[in-house]
Amino acid sequence: MLIRSYQSSDLDELKRITIEGFDGTAIDQNVERALGILGDHDWRWRKVRHVDEDVEANPTGVFVAEDDGKVLGYVSTRLDRESAKGRIPNLAVDKAARGRGIGRRLIEHALDYFRREGMVFAMIETMTNNPVGQHLYPSCGFVEAGRQIHYAIRL
User: Fold this and answer.
1) 3-class DSSP state of 134
2) Largest CA-CA distance found in the chain, in angstroms, rounded
3) How far, CA to CA in Å, does 150 sit from each of 2, 28, 38, 45, 138?
4) 128: nearest Cα among 118, 117, 137, 141
5) Tens digit of each residue's pLDDT (9 = 90 or more) over 72-85
6) Would strands 121-124 and 85-93 be described as parallel, antiparallel, or unpaired?
7) Interatomic CA distance for residues 88 and 110, integer angstroms
8) What is the gyration radius of the CA atoms in the chain, in angstroms?
9) Which residues make Cβ contacts (< 8 Å) with residue 79, sequence separation at least 6?
């Protein structure tokens, strides 16, 4: 397996993996469960917009795990140079490739990128209904820094 820089031809696969990977844990999906579909689009549409935002904001900080030409997963990053903070907004691994350490390797790659870019700390977040993230992130050295409760209301 190889971890490489994002290419624009990866975008559709990243979006597919994102929908698959965040099904059951996406905040917009939770909102939709509570309030129904909002507006003209469902949670999947909103979630893949995050991928578009990630590749637009920091295309050199999106990394793809690939094996034999097949995209297995990806991690996106953001840099806040003023606060020296690196952030991982999205991490997803293809369902068929899970359990092989790909998510861990993508996180480690992102952390190395942050170090090279002079960041002094990194953040990642997960939902309480994501047991994989709650196990993986601490095992990569992250410590819990706080919890947040999301509320929503139909307008």
Assistant:
1) helix
2) 48
3) 36, 10, 16, 20, 22
4) 137
5) 999 999 999 999 99
6) parallel
7) 8
8) 16
9) 58, 61, 85, 86, 87, 114, 117, 119
Residue-wise pLDDT tens digits, 12-45:
999 999 999 999 999 999 999 999 999 999 999 9
Kindly list the distances between the CA atom of residue 27 and the CA atoms of 44, 70, 125, 141, 150, in Å, as whole numbers in the listed order: 11, 28, 12, 24, 8
CB-CB contact of 50 with 18 (8 Å): yes
Task: Provide the pairing of β-strand 70-80 with 121-124.
Answer: unpaired
Residue 92 makes CB contacts below 8 A (sequence gap 6+) with 14, 17, 18, 20, 21, 22, 73, 74
Q: Are 108 and 44 within 8 A, CB to CB?
A: no
The tens digit of pLDDT for each residue in 120-154 reads 999 999 999 999 999 999 999 999 999 999 999 99
- Polymer length in residues for the chain: 155
Prediction pTM value: 0.94
Which tokens belong to 45?
């549409």
